[in-house]
Amino acid sequence: MPTTSTPRCLLGIDLGAGSLKSMVVADDGRVLGSAAADITTHSPQPGWSEQDPQDWWRALCTTVPRALAEAGIAADAIAAVSFSAGAHTPVLEDAQGRVLRPAILWSDQRSGDESRELRDTLGDRILQIAGNLPSPTWTLPQLKWLSRHEPAIAPATGRLYVAQGWLRSRLTGSWEMDRTDAVGTLLWDVAADRWSEELCALAGWDPRTLPPIVEPTAVVGTVTAAAAAQCGLKAGTPVVCGTSDTSIETFGAGSIRTGDGTVKLATAATVSVVAERPNVHRTLINYPLVVPGLWYTITGTNSCASAHRWLRDRFFLPPGADAAAGSAAFNEMDRLAAAVPAGAEGLLFHPYLQGERAPYWDPLLRADFVGLTFRHERGHFVRALYEGIAFSLRDVLEQFRALQLAPASARLIGGGARSATWRQVIADVLELPIQLPAVTDASFGAALVAGVGVGVFADAQAAVAACVRHTATVEPQRGTKPLYDELFGLYRQAQAGLQGVNHALARMPT
């Protein structure tokens, strides 16, 4: 039976690209219970990615009671709850609080034309104000696309949320955003520390629809009685703002000092480094970190775990397979990849299944396997996928190295970190020692943010000291360096050689 205890447990809720996870964490960092629920992504046209926000709320109401039950605690043992989610995803409500349309995800590529227009005509000015350049990932070009193609939406919008802010508002009824998510909209003036009317005008957007800004550790309200009745939390439980998933994951992995590096293998894959200020650059991205006064510079590849799942679903699963079969298939893929030598016997993979972000910022790029012969079996494809994503990360890491920003080591987070083979590939290709945090879920970091917000921890540094542990370090193998250096060069040559072909294919009728 669940028991009431001193309220020192913390609840973190993370909305990922394909699922929502709720996690109960003790004040010493122990994970007491967790539960996840899948979220359906809809693609009504090629390159589009949308979700119904009501699905997020249903997933929260499903997972919170399950996480509490697994932890063996009652709802009144939760000292606070906080949130994380992918940045950039706008949720638009009218004046009556009704969601106007599905949420456009950060991975959506529909605003490619709008992004190019903004970059070509006003890129330098946008970079000067917002500290970043537009691509289809960002909210600004998404809103510009809406103004052009769904012109009734902007005049009807009363409030703009980002994903985690909308979900949090279901608990509190409040409306706010932290600076990391504000920067992620590409509507925030970094130097002036306010919403930019100039940037809003580029999208034809009313700045009055944008929320007030608070710190990620600010208590923004409490769970209402109506929300408590649906989701199983206790009415009156403090709710802390939270922030975007990568900021929270970076913090939750213990990267809180200048120069700390983090590699993320999730739906997308990223490389980031903690900095004292934004490193404004045309191919790098900058956000404030959870830790006050710090930023992180980040860039990455669009398709990582999403590409891994694509390969599994197309070639390793029978139609109609259940979740257990899907998990077993991932394990079999990893076993097969481990048996294939480094280099996949000459098979290369470019992971551009949904266009590509850094360093090309090209939504028309397409994925491929290059070098295929009769000797290649299923395991070669998995190994080539692991290596191709690692090469894509090295492609972006080289930018950090050219600017003398590269870390000396990195913490590895995300679902891909569970594979020992993939971990070693990352260490070898990036030529970096890789540290493995004991817990890498964004929901874990969100729980720590909740604890900072209500004083369970004195500050972010105290939360990391009390709760974050590392289990191992993966060192790069020297013997693979010549091979991977050569293959990386070929990877880049193939990308350049196929760019025109990719653009032509992308423009063919679908």
What is the topology?
Blueprint: E1 9-15, E2 19-25, E3 31-38, E4 50-51, H1 53-71, E5 78-85, E6 90-93, E7 103-104, H2 112-130, H3 139-149, H4 153-156, E8 159-162, H5 163-172, E9 177-178, H6 179-184, E10 188-189, E11 194-195, H7 197-202, E12 213-214, E13 219-222, H8 225-231, E14 238-240, E15 243-244, H9 245-252, E16 261-265, E17 269-275, E18 285-288, E19 295-301, H10 305-315, H11 323-338, E20 348-350, E21 368-370, H12 378-402, E22 410-413, H13 420-430, E23 434-437, H14 442-453, H15 460-467, E24 470-474, H16 481-506
Parallel strand pairs: 1-5, 5-15, 9-12, 16-22, 22-23
Antiparallel strand pairs: 1-2, 2-3, 4-7, 6-8, 10-11, 13-14, 16-17, 17-19, 18-19, 20-21, 23-24
Helix pairs in contact: 2-3, 9-14, 10-12, 11-12, 12-13, 14-15
